[in-house]
From TrEMBL:
TM region(s), chain numbering: 15-36, 180-198
Keywords for the protein's UniProt record, in alphabetical order: Membrane, Transmembrane, Transmembrane helix
Protein name from the UniProt record: Polysaccharide chain length determinant N-terminal domain-containing protein
Organism, scientific name: Loigolactobacillus rennini DSM 20253
Length: 209
């Protein structure tokens, strides 16, 4: 009676798992060693912030007295937040960033955010960058594009830039040891797959000769 002999596919799968696990382990150990010798990294970040207002203000002059009627724009703010995420707005903002030579410094998905403030009639657009000038320019540009797209989409005029970005706020992003180890492990897994892929291509190339 002959023993069980795994198929060639199972052998290749086992080899793949073995290589990937070994590569991940090696790079995880390298990450641990690197993070142990190197303190947690601190990288400066800059944020440009713009406030968008949706409040409707009406002024009347009654009996020699100025009367101001104020109505909140809380019902409009969620529509603006949706407009910020719309493909047409993203495309228009990408084109504007490219024209302003900011496309390589800012990523819309990661660096441009918006959130509604405690005052329901206000939305803050925030742009984060490693360069203060790019953060300020990007925030003002994103606000202008978003306001224009919102007016075109809903035909509402009760939206305006209340406070533009004039200077960037400096913050710090801390890279922890755990993050370094996690990144090293991921790199190891990726290199393991790349090694298997390159090895298979080489074997096919040699066999075809």
């Amino acid at each position: 009676m002959t023993g069980f002999k795994p198929s060639q596919t199972l052998q290749k799968l086992a080899h793949l798992i073995k290589v990937v696990c070994c590569s991940a382990l090696i790079f995880a150990l390298l990450g641990i060693g690197y993070s142990w010798r190197r303190p947690a990294g601190v990288a400066p970040l800059y944020q440009g912030k713009v406030l968008i207002s949706f409040a409707k203000v009406q002024r009347q002059h009654i009996a020699e007295t100025d009367v101001v009627h104020y109505s909140s724009g809380g019902d409009v703010a969620p529509l603006f937040m949706d407009t910020m995420k719309a493909p047409t707005t993203v495309k228009a903002l990408q084109q504007a960033l490219t024209k302003a030579n900011l496309a390589t410094k800012l990523d819309i998905a990661n660096n441009v955010t918006s959130k509604q403030q405690k005052d329901a009639s206000l939305v803050q657009i925030q742009v984060t960058s490693h360069q203060p000038k790019a953060a300020v320019q990007g925030a003002n540009l994103a606000a202008r594009v978003a306001v224009r797209q919102f007016k075109q989409r809903y035909h509402l005029r009760r939206v305006r830039i209340l406070v533009p970005a004039t200077q960037a706020e400096k913050q710090f992003r801390i890279t922890s040891r755990g993050e370094l180890i996690l990144k090293s492990t991921f790199i190891g897994i990726l290199l393991g797959f790349l090694w298997i892929f390159a090895r298979e291509l080489w074997q096919v190339h040699v066999t075809s000769k």
